[in-house]
Write a structure and sequence with these properties.
The protein is built from twelve helices and ten strands. The protein is of the alpha/beta class and 334 residues long.
């Protein structure tokens, strides 16, 4: 029986060397411990200087392959889909070009997967912990999911709609907190929606959660997410009129559509409404902007069932904020 292999897929768009270097070094460190590894970097709409830096950096590392891609799209979905098509590993690990792989995570995951393989079960998704590094250097655990607490063993997630829905809360909706079995993605024709500007990974995650037969949570920390001025999330709040309403609604509609009746989206909607609610406190948003957003969010407020939310301090805090911003009546005491 052959060893399990991994493919790392990284979209790269003019990432500065100061941000790419920690990412590069973290993968090289993992390569020293893990031989069955390929790294596919998709250089997407990059300028000549960025491409030169990238090729100079990876020189001499045969396990790294750069694919240059030029198109009119401005999101990571296009290069991620290209990387998925080219990947040959048994499992896919998505890594942004300014983030890091945590020490020994691939070995830890491989060992856990090898144990599962002896029982004839191969998880479609393996979820792990992650950490956030802010510009100040502060490191904090990411709120992965309500199902991830102080676990010390690999545990299976049931296919109950509310349990799967909990996975869409916090960093659980992001693609960088998990690995995916490549054949599972291929067999189910799962790919990134290239039309969605923001939140495309939430839609991808929801579809995976809906179709996965086996999902496991691993207690190890596997990903280090860096939040700085070049991070995509930092630009999310920079909405402009010409972006249109889809900036706010496309990813929410996408998650609701692919979830159907298989995943309870109430927790996801709660967090989406919280995020949009916080945007309305920006000083550069006009009164007209705020009214427009409130009207856009009305249908999601109606779709969300606040009475079914789990009893959790973080959820209660978010619920209180959403209720106050959107003036939802009749649930203040629930």
């Amino acid at each position: 029986m052959k060893d399990l292999s991994f493919s790392i897929v990284t979209p790269f768009h003019n990432t500065k060397e100061i941000f790419f270097d920690p990412c590069f070094r973290s993968v090289l460190k993992e390569k020293d411990r893990f031989t069955d590894l390929e790294w596919i970097i998709v250089a997407h709409n990059c300028d000549a200087e960025s491409k030169r830096m990238l090729y100079d950096k990876i020189s001499g590392n045969s396990f790294i392959r750069v694919i240059e891609k030029e198109d009119s799209l401005r999101t990571p979905s296009s290069p991620r889909n290209t990387g998925l098509k080219e990947a040959a590993g048994d499992y896919i690990f998505f890594l942004d070009s300014d983030d890091e792989i945590a020490d020994e995570i691939l070995v830890n995951l491989k060992n856990s997967l090898a144990e599962k393989r002896t029982t004839g079960i191969m998880p479609d998704i393996m979820i792990y912990q992650s950490s956030v590094v802010r510009g100040s250097g502060q490191i904090t655990p990411a709120a992965l999911s309500l199902l991830v607490g102080n676990k010390d063993s690999v545990e299976e997630i049931s296919d109950d709609s509310k349990e799967r829905g909990k996975l869409l809360y916090g960093a659980g909706r992001q693609i960088w907190s998990k690995i995916y079995r490549r054949d599972f993605l291929i067999d189910n024709k799962i790919a990134f929606d290239e039309k969605i500007v923001v939140g495309e990974d939430a839609v991808f995650s929801a579809e995976c959660y809906k179709k996965a037969a086996k999902i496991y949570i691993h207690p190890a920390t596997g990903y280090i997410y860096h939040q700085h001025e070049q991070s995509l999330i930092q630009g999310v709040t920079a909405w402009k009129e010409e972006m249109g309403d889809g900036f706010f609604t496309d990813y929410i509609d996408g998650v609701c559509r692919v979830s159907e009746d298989k995943i309870d989206v109430s927790l996801f909607l709660l967090e989406a409404l919280s995020f949009t609610g916080m945007l309305m406190f920006r000083k550069d948003y006009t009164r007209e902007n705020r009214i427009r957003i409130l009207k856009l969010m009305e249908r999601y407020v109606e779709k969300m069932d606040l009475t079914t939310l789990p009893n959790n301090p973080d959820v209660e805090k978010t619920k209180h904020f959403v209720v106050s911003v959107y003036r939802i009546r009749g649930v203040e005491g629930k």
